[in-house]
Specification:
Helix content of chain A is 37%, strand content 16%. By secondary structure, chain A is of the alpha/beta class. Chain A has three domains: 176 residues, 3-Layer(aba) Sandwich (Rossmann fold), CATH 3.40.50.970; 168 residues, TPP-binding domain (Rossmann fold), CATH 3.40.50.1220; 177 residues, Rossmann fold, CATH 3.40.50.970. Chain B has two domains: 79 residues, ACT domain (Alpha-Beta Plaits); 74 residues, ACT-like. Chain A, domain 2 (Alpha-Beta Plaits), CATH 3.30.70.1150. Classes of the chains: A alpha/beta, B alpha+beta.
């Protein structure tokens, strides 16, 4: 083992040690040595994207679907700057990815060299951590630290900047076991404090109108089973944020649907009337809370989160619990076993009855039509035809909200969306990443006609690699969500939101070598979906939908959740 | 709503002594809209560690958030809010004051009262070194102002916890 290895070799050795099988990337002068070495690594499959932003979103989708760390590899300068949106999105949504960027040789750094950019400086505020490796001696350790940081604690993106001369230098590497990586100044609290957990349970046991408000933390910590057990044991109704969808079964009697700006009436009313609100792995985002002082005004709040800085950031909580959601819920379930059994179904009858009543009064609904395709109808049909099993990614805007409302997710890691950053162009490349992680699954990007054009170039990537991703465009020839705000809040002044000038999406699909279908009438929707699902190739389904349909209910920005507009 | 009380806090942060770490700290403040009133950084006895003393202000919730965000940085080893503890604070200033004819003696008298040191002399000026807490330095400066301050440089606050008394 005492032979010399180049930086490029050490880099790929490290990736292999981390168990990386798939990377998404785009080559260039500053990473050409790594790409050269890649030709000798049959165990790592590289997917050549057509824009670096897509590489990062794909790594993000891959990470969410597979529960592994996603990897992207790009060159210096513009290659690196193109990753920023993808990194920022992964940061907001706490997704474990590592982005490797090439950099000009160390002696040229700071000289405004060709394709030089200070990507470590640029991504400092949108990564969990980042590194510039200036010495090959630190290369291996840095790479393993990057993976460790990305996946541990509150997960997040890490960027490692690799100067070209570091890739080209060679040393005799010291043996290094990635499992041995410890960073003294970084010790996330995983185990929740048992005393706090006890206090929380005592409060929950006294609650008359408790609500579980769950978020992405349920997914990241694989806590779904513990959550289900806990909710069922105490008959506590569950709502979740956009990021938490799938963490609790979407067809369970205790499920109330998503809360917040486009949440269900019953979920928002339940939170507003709750006496104990149990937030698990959620962060009281403004899209969830609406006007802060009117959010859960009567509730004592318990907040479980692995990131101490999420606790009491927006809302001051009564019982903070720092730790992994699964660990905390597991402890709660264990404590519960020792409690005297009570008939919780009977004790909750009144509270759950009120919630059912709210739901009966204002369920999620839309005006059905025989003439024009309703976008919600398309999502319902996608759910029906795939038996609710498909992996769903979304773009951002109305398509995203309709997917969240009308696709009833069965399980965690089934739904991928750019929740925090709201990056249009996320869904398609993310779907590509999901399909790589789950080659035999049906993966559908629910898209809008605006968003899909932001990364449409990836059609060639999915065609080239036989990734049979399906794209369902809810085509209303508008930037629908912005138009909806203009329609409802700006007296219908549609400024820069009319997308009537658009390509023929069926021909676009065909031009790239994919398959394209169009549906313009409601009765065509199901046949198009069925055909698309049977074809083992990438398919665009262009659903020409009702132009002025709005996402309802809606809590207008800055309003309290009980002031929501209803359908 | 009751106005939230803003208080001045002096916070010590032990960080890895590496390039870019200071920018992570200052970037955190600007990016999240926290304010920094002053900042001092230098190596500790262990050259791998730097100690930052920073002064900021905000209500309780903001200060709690600042401390948590600082702790969240991977390169941060320890954060202590000294304002919650018995501690000593010092700042330093160097001031060049006009000192001609009869004001020459007066400037020296002020320097003497506040135990300033004269670090440079010219026929028409004195340069004084002042150390003390924030309030003392403000007091000296306001007295010297009427004589004419030609140049001034001030450090941020340094602070250290007092030893336990037993």
């Amino acid at each position: 083992m005492s032979t010399k290895r180049t930086g490029a070799q050490i880099f790929l050795d490290c990736l292999e040690r981390e168990g990386v099988q798939h990377i998404f990337g785009y080559p260039g002068g500053a990473v050409i040595d790594i790409y050269d070495e890649l030709t000798r690594r049959p165990h790592i499959k590289h997917y050549l994207v057509r824009h670096e932003q897509a590489a990062v979103h794909a790594a993000d989708g891959y990470a969410r679907a597979s529960n592994k760390v996603g990897v992207a590899l790009v060159t210096s300068g513009p290659g690196a700057t193109n990753t920023v949106t993808g990194i920022a999105s992964a940061y907001m949504d706490s997704i474990p990815i590592v982005v490797f960027s090439g950099q000009v040789p160390t002696h040229l750094i700071g000289n405004d060299a060709f394709q030089e950019v200070d990507i470590v400086g640029i991504t400092r505020p949108c990564t969990k951590h980042n590194y510039l490796v200036t010495d090959i001696k630190h290369l291996a350790r840095t790479i393993h630290e990057a993976f460790y940081i990305a996946r541990s604690g509150r997960p997040g993106p890490v960027l490692v900047d690799l100067p070209k001369n570091v890739q080209q230098a060679s040393i005799v590497p010291e043996p290094l076991d990635p499992k041995e990586i410890r960073i003294p100044s970084y010790q996330p609290t995983v185990h929740a404090n048992p005393r706090q957990v006890r206090r929380a349970l005592d409060l929950i046991l006294q609650a008359k109108q408790p609500v579980l408000y769950t978020g992405g933390g349920i997914i990241h910590s694989n806590a779904s089973e513990e959550l289900l057990k806990f909710a069922e044991a105490l008959q506590i109704p569950v709502t979740s944020t956009l990021m938490g969808l799938g963490g609790f079964p979407g067809i369970h009697p205790l499920w109330m649907g998503m809360l917040g700006m486009h949440g269900t009436y019953c979920a928002n009313m339940a939170v507003a009337n709750s006496d104990v609100l149990i937030a698990v792995g959620a962060r009281f985002d403004d899209r969830v809370t609406g006007r802060l002082d009117a959010f859960a005004p009567h509730a004592k709040i318990i907040h479980i989160d692995i990131d101490p800085s999420s606790i009491s950031k927006n809302v001051v909580v009564d019982i903070p619990i720092v730790g992994d959601c699964r660990d905390a819920l597991h402890q709660l379930n264990n404590l519960l076993k020792k409690e005297e059994p009570r008939d919780w179904a009977a004790l909750r009858e009144e509270w759950l009855g009120r919630i059912r009543e709210w739901d009966r009064k204002h369920p999620l609904k839309y005006k059905k039509s025989k003439e024009v395709i309703k976008p919600q109808f398309v999502v319902e049909k996608l759910w029906e035809v795939t038996g609710g099993d498909a992996y769903i990614t979304t773009e951002v805007g109305q398509n995203q909200m309709w997917a969240a409302q009308f696709f009833k997710f069965k399980r965690a890691r089934q739904f991928m969306t750019s929740g925090g950053l709201g990056a249009m162009g996320y869904g398609f490349p993310a779907a590509m990443g999901v399909q790589v992680a789950k080659p035999d699954a049906i993966v559908i990007d629910i898209a809008g006609d605006g968003s899909i054009l932001m990364n449409i170039q990836e059609l060639i990537t999915v065609v080239e690699n036989n990734l049979p991703v399906k794209i369902a465009i809810l085509n209303n020839a508008y930037l629908g969500m912005v138009r909806q705000w203009q329609q409802l809040l700006y007296d219908k002044r549609y400024s820069a939101t009319d997308l009537s000038a658009q390509p023929d999406f069926v021909k676009v699909a065909e031009a790239f070598g994919a398959v394209g279908f169009r549906a313009t009438k409601p009765e065509e929707v199901e046949p198009v979906i069925r055909k698309a699902m049977e074809i083992k190739r990438p398919v665009i389904m262009d659903f020409v939908v009702d132009r002025e349909e709005c996402v309802m209910p809606m809590v207008p920005p800055g309003k309290a959740t009980h002031e929501m507009l209803l359908a | 709503m009751e106005a939230k009380k803003n208080r001045r806090h002096t916070i010590s942060v032990w960080v890895d002594n590496q390039p870019g770490v200071l920018s992570r700290v200052t970037g955190l403040f600007s990016g999240r809209g926290f304010n920094i009133e002053s900042l001092c950084v230098a190596e500790t006895m262990d050259p791998a560690t730097s100690r930052i003393t920073l002064v900021t202000s905000g209500d309780e919730q903001i200060i709690e958030q600042i401390i948590k965000q600082l702790r969240k940085l991977i390169n941060t080893q320890k954060v202590v809010d000294l304002s919650e503890l018995d501690h000593v604070e010092r700042e330093m200033a160097m001031v060049r004051v006009k000192a001609e004819d009869k004001s020459r003696a007066e400037v020296l008298r002020i320097a003497d009262i506040f135990r300033c040191r004269v670090v440079d002399v010219s026929p028409t000026t004195y340069t004084l070194e002042i150390t003390g807490n924030h309030e003392k330095i403000q007091a000296v400066l306001s007295l010297l102002k009427s004589h004419g301050i030609l140049d001034i440089v001030r450090s941020g606050t340094l602070a250290i916890q007092r030893a336990k008394k037993e």
